[in-house]
Design a protein that fits this description.
The chain is of the alpha/beta class. The chain contains five helices and four strands, in the order E-H-E-H-E-H-E-H-H. It has a single domain (5-127), classed as Phosphotransferase system, mannose-type IIA component (Rossmann fold), CATH 3.40.50.
Length: 131
């Protein structure tokens, strides 16, 4: 699959994988979306190593958008971005709601849009009213 990749990082592996499944289903698999979360022993938490592996998995050379749920997942993403030893260019952290941002970003990514367009779509999802 080519295009902008999306990594969802959560404290819960089940939450991240579920959100990735929803986003992928909505765009009928037209975007590369991976959900990661939890610790290696199945507890709540986040892992920089898992984030690095997920970014490498979805990177097709056009950029990657990270969507984090809260707290330490945001800090983990920021740590990745601050470390110049990581070589994947065009990785961006979205200020977006977790599920809605994932779906909006995946739909736009499935059209072959740029990383900036995918990032914008994910971030615009926070302004969509539900009532």
């Amino acid at each position: 699959m080519s295009g902008v990749g999306i990594v969802l990082i959560s404290h819960s592996r089940a939450l991240a994988e579920g959100a990735a499944d929803v986003a992928s289903s909505v765009c009928q698999g037209g975007a590369s979306v991976v959900g990661i979360g939890g610790t290696d022993d199945g507890q709540l938490g986040t892992s920089l190593d898992a984030l690095v592996a997920a970014i490498d998995k979805v990177d097709a050379g056009l950029g990657v958008v990270i969507i984090a749920d809260l707290g330490s997942s945001v800090l983990t993403a920021r740590s990745y971005l601050a470390d110049s030893s990581y070589t994947v260019p065009g990785v961006r952290l979205a200020d977006a709601p977790f599920v809605e941002g994932a779906v909006a970003g995946a739909v736009v990514a499935s059209t072959g849009a740029s990383v900036d367009a995918v990032l914008a779509a994910a971030e615009e999802a926070r302004d969509v009213r539900k009532s």
